[in-house]
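QA checklist item 7 of 12: single-chain prediction sanity check.
[x] sequence parsed
[x] length recorded as 448
[x] structure emitted
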Amino acid sequence: MFTQAYFSHYRQTIHLALPIIAGQLSQILISLADNTMVGNFDSQSLAASALANAIFWSIFIVGIGITLGLTPPVAASSATGDIKTCQRYFKHGIVLYSSIGFFIFLFIVAISFFLDSLGQQLEVATLARPYLQILGGSAFFVLIFQSIKQFMHGISHTKEPMYIEFGEAGLNILLNYTFIFGNFGFPALGLLGAGIATILARMLGCIALVILFVSSSHFAKYREGFEWKVFAFKDFKYLIKLGVPIGLSMLFETSAFAMSNVMMGWIGADELAAHQIALNVASTTFLVAMGISSATAVRTANQLGLKNVGELRMAGKAGMLINLVFMASCVLIISIFHNVIPMLYVKEVEVQKIASILLIVAALFQLSDGLQVACMGALRGITDVKIPTFITLFAYWGIGIPLGYVLGFVLDIGAVGIWISLFIALTVAAILLTLRFLDKSKRIIQVA
């Protein structure tokens, strides 16, 4: 993996990934701003934010995952210069994903009325409900944004969505400052203000990306001859067949972390707030790794479209090594600053102490997390999505959650026990997904 041929793959993957990573980091900037600003408002609001975000993302991640199914066929078609096929998938993707966004909104609103049934403190559930409903309303705009973004990634235009995402992040911070704390003549709305800021920023970001696509000369050839009159059920079916397993695999992982939020709530509000801090840090590093994974998916899909099966295997392995190197640096940084990071979020000393311990465990699973998401990207690029879905189900819900309950409550290890179970689940997923890609890519080569 250190020959000249591999270094070419490293260079191309990194070049493609950097704007995606930057875009991912802009979204983390939104999350960091929400958590730090809400945390400085009061710790009760931070706990409510943790609960609402866990529920929202455990549902919404399915929609995000489904949109990732658009990138491989677009990337494969783009590699061969088939503009019409790219247009066809894009058109069907926009209609499909916006419809999914609307139904997610309705489902989240319905779920919001049952927060009291999750065993959370009444004050936390009451604060979380309207915030969760507003987050649900943003789903429609985000999935339209995702449709255009994944299409642009498929045709290797990764910078344009990044610019919009950074603008959205900056706007979100300004709106948070306005609505959470009551500035510029507005009342202080606390967590509700954070929700209003989020939906406004996401709506305007969606509008901006639409305007960019219909006006930029970079996409002129994809607009030429584009028409909305004819739709084919087989194209919707293909995108669903490819996207739903991706969405489910992301659901299994995210919902496992969401269930860990619920279990933390059973222990106490301090543990839940500390868990949110550690999870926010882990999510930051993960989204960088996810950006590399997305680039790896494009690279393997390109090689599949060109029928360069040997290069396909190399592109996948290159993405894995890039992620491992990055996550190794994260292990070092989190380990050194695990006592300092919680101070950026909350003032309560007890929450800081718990969070600093959880961050040590978060540092331990960085390598596993980076490897498993890189493998998922490589497999997604070659449209191998069913078996990886079963692997994630087994790792997170067959092992992670049951083990978390045993360690956290039966053996009474508490919050640390729940995080140890997440580390074990991620490691199992990383091993099995790596073996899957190596086996699948080898068989593709043999068939060719």
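[x] summary fact logged: The mean pLDDT is 91.
[ ] second reviewer sign-off
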